[in-house]
Write a structure and sequence with these properties.
Elements lengths: L3 E4 L4 E4 L8 E5 L13 H18 L4 E5 L6 H10 L3 H18 L15 H13 L3 E4 L2 E4 L15 H6 L15 E5 L16 E2 L1 H12 L4 E7 L3 H15 L6 E7 L2 E3 L2 E2 L10 H7 L2 H8 L8 E3 L1 H27 L2 H4 L6 H15 L4 H20 L3 H17 L7 H6 L4 H19 L3 H13 L2 E6 L2 E6 L4
Parallel strand pairs: 3-4, 3-9, 9-10, 11-13
Antiparallel strand pairs: 1-2, 5-6, 6-7, 7-8, 11-12, 14-15
Helix pairs in contact: 2-3, 4-6, 6-7, 9-10, 10-13, 10-14, 12-13, 12-14, 13-14, 16-17
The protein binds one RNA strand of 74 nucleotides through α1, α5, β9, α7 and α10.
Length: 478
Amino acid sequence: MTLNLYDTMSRAKRPFAPKDPGRVTLYVCGPTVYNYAHIGNFRPVVVFDLLFRVLRDLYGADAVLYAANVTDVDDKINRKAAEEGVPIATISGRYLDAYNADAAALGALPPTFQPRVTETMDAIVKMIGDLVGQNAAYPAEGHVLFDTQAFADYGKLSGRPMDEMIAGARVEVAPYKRHPADFVLWKPSKPGEPVWESPWGPGRPGWHIECTAMIEAVLGLPIDIHGGGIDLVFPHHENELAQGVCAGHGRDYAHVWMHNGFLNMSDEKMSKSVGNVALAHDLLGEYPGEAIRWALLAGHYRQPLEWTGELIGQAKSALDRLYRALDDSGRFLAGAPTSARASGGEHRGGVMAYDAVQAALQDDLNTPLAFAGLFQLSDHLRSAIMGKDVAGVERCRALLLEAAQLMGFLTADPGAWFQGGADDDLKAKVEALIAERLTARAEKNWPEADRIRDALVALNVEVMDGPTGATWRIKEQA
RNA sequence: GGCCUGAUGGCGGAGUGGUUACGCACCGGACUGCAAAUCCGUGCACCCGGGUUCGAUUCCCGGUCAGGCCUCCA
């Protein structure tokens, strides 16, 4: 089985072949840490985390190097630091911690590297120097600018011929630019802003050069896969590519360019300029991380995604179904005679469904199709339970867990999933009521049994009578 | 103006040149004291108009609609 990925540069899905299967490199543009990140910022986090997992599955966990940078030099950070009267590191540190915590709650594995601009400044300055040395950049009035004329392929990634872009009236051309499309590599800091030393005078780096320098410093160029949001194709990735190639004497930059589609909210683009942002941080207080992760992966990663409450609700219900199968099978196995458990054996349908999940993911991360495989697996698990096939239940349960966890799902204990919102106090209360109800039911005292269920409903708890007793769960908030 | 996506049932959303996955929701039945879950079953979904074809939702052309990008927003 081979991994196929859609490459923005060639506009085609193609087989993925890393330069060195023992050292697969992935870089994704990360956040600017000046505030809590909104949910749209986490789409690439979840998408490329999934890719990270698939790559690890294919090449081995140690063979995949994943770098996701952090921009901690930025105007918005400066502003916030000035407002609070603290150093920028206080601001960036605070929101980086929150960002990492939210990413973890969404089931994202920590990247291998998380380089920061402030820690990569030497490499950035050096790369600018290399570009000047290659005549691909020029100093002007305290700035250093990239000379887009030096890169013949400029515009190729985004499919924008240079002349057309100049025609666009929105470009404001600074007088010191040789060409309107030239962009800043280094600029002077404004009074009061953080400053770093450079051969061209004190100042700070431009946005684009940061990523290129961090990739070079952390992974080394060229890399196998470069990822990010579709909105970064131009100018950010176009500029990265130009910088990387020109600084590196015509070498490749990235073999595959991958871009996730935009996340929209209520017909309005989810960006920091719009007021109605939904912070992942807040959403995680209302929904389990896995449900949000599921919602983010509900459509193909290259398609736009409409972010609605209904979407998350459907995601939660879909996951409930899987967790119920897990829960029921666990209960079945707990009650099964131990002698029957050693029989082992393979389960043909289960293995096929597992393979389907894997194949779907390897086909350019087709998550909706992979979800279908997960449900197929849970159906096999169900019928094994119905058929009292202990070995089949064990096998299918293991396959379901393995397939789901490859995608970052079913990592919770089913009990915790359904009763997650309950504290110990509530749990004790519920258990006591259920015990009372069990007695009433044994005496066929239905009015009393129903009264107790109503009492439980009042506690936002739903009871489910089973052959071996009752189970319960926290009801959905209506 | 330039470039580029997309249009599939009540909702979300894959896929395919020839019985329209999957999930959510709904409806009928089984099971259940009731309920939930589970199981069985039903639902005339592929934007419009041409073309290619024995046959198109799938390929080609045109149109309509929606959305994105065009210098620092993932």
